[in-house]
Design a protein that fits this description.
By secondary structure, this protein is mainly β. It is built from one helix and 17 strands. Strands 5, 6, 12, 13, 15, 16 and 17 form a seven-stranded mixed sheet that branches. Strands 3-2-8-9 form a four-stranded antiparallel sheet, with no helix packed on it. A hairpin with a 5-residue loop joins β15 and β16. The longest helix has 8 residues. It is globular and about 60 Å long.
């Protein structure tokens, strides 16, 4: 199907690391490096070229359900570049974010062609309740999950609600980062209890690819996610 180039930038206050709410952002622009030619942003299907997503959630970083997920404050700018696949040049881009005080914040973006994989299929997704109060998700990963020392492909599990925190988007409640071979995730009983207090729950599995230790033009290093493939959302009815 149609492919788009997606970008995202986490937004925090540089002084204290606190989340920046959408009203604090005035402008976002993306430039190719080193030419600094501006890359147009695609406004469709949104009413603006970018959106800011604000959703503190609980994060299970090792995918080990019995270890309680921890609260993870998060907000991000996201949008799409107005270029036709596969015409984006591999390499670095600079994003310039302007806040309501007209202070500009610069951040590196990076692109390289990913090793694409198919989506998790809806008919492979299942939910089962366990006698100890936990709930287990299961699914089938794509046939190939390429990876290596500098690049890894992993599944991530998401639980969301259609309710929102004022940004116009449903809130992310739980995210679990797994290993490339994982095809199940068990929500701890305490998390099941917390999630039962929410309404209109859905869950899905996203396949991500990440490259490690990329050296930016200013000699800083970063890990970059270069691929996200969203599986279908399924309604979640907790016991």
């Amino acid at each position: 199907g149609t492919k788009s180039y997606y970008f995202n930038i986490q937004v925090t206050n540089p002084d204290d690391g606190m989340l920046v709410f959408p009203s604090a952002i005035k402008d976002v622009r993306v430039y190719e490096y080193p030419s600094m030619n501006e890359v147009p942003l695609d406004p469709a299907p949104y009413s603006a070229p970018w959106k800011l997503w604000f959703s503190p959630f609980y994060f299970d970083g090792d995918g080990n359900g019995p270890s309680p997920p921890v609260s993870f404050p998060y907000s991000e700018i996201f949008g799409f570049l107005d270029v036709t696949y596969p015409d984006l040049t591999s390499g670095f881009y600079k994003a310039v974010v302007t806040d309501q005080s007209d202070i500009q914040h610069e951040v590196w973006l990076y692109y390289e062609a990913p090793d694409e994989v198919s989506k998790v299929q809806g008919d492979s997704m299942n939910v089962s309740a366990n006698s100890d109060g936990t709930v287990t998700f299961s699914w089938a990963n794509p046939p190939s999950m390429p990876g290596g020392p500098s690049k890894v492909t992993i599944p991530r599990v998401y639980v969301e609600t259609t309710e929102d925190s004022g940004d116009g988007f449903g809130d992310l409640l739980l995210q679990a980062s797994l290993s490339s071979s994982d095809t199940t995730y068990t929500i701890p009983a305490s998390e099941v209890t917390r999630l039962k207090g929410q309404t209109n729950l859905t869950w899905y599995v996203q396949i991500r690819q990440r490259v490690f230790n990329v050296t930016n033009p200013d000699s800083s290093t970063n890990h970059y996610y270069i691929y996200r493939n969203y599986g279908p959302r399924q309604t979640l009815n907790l016991p």
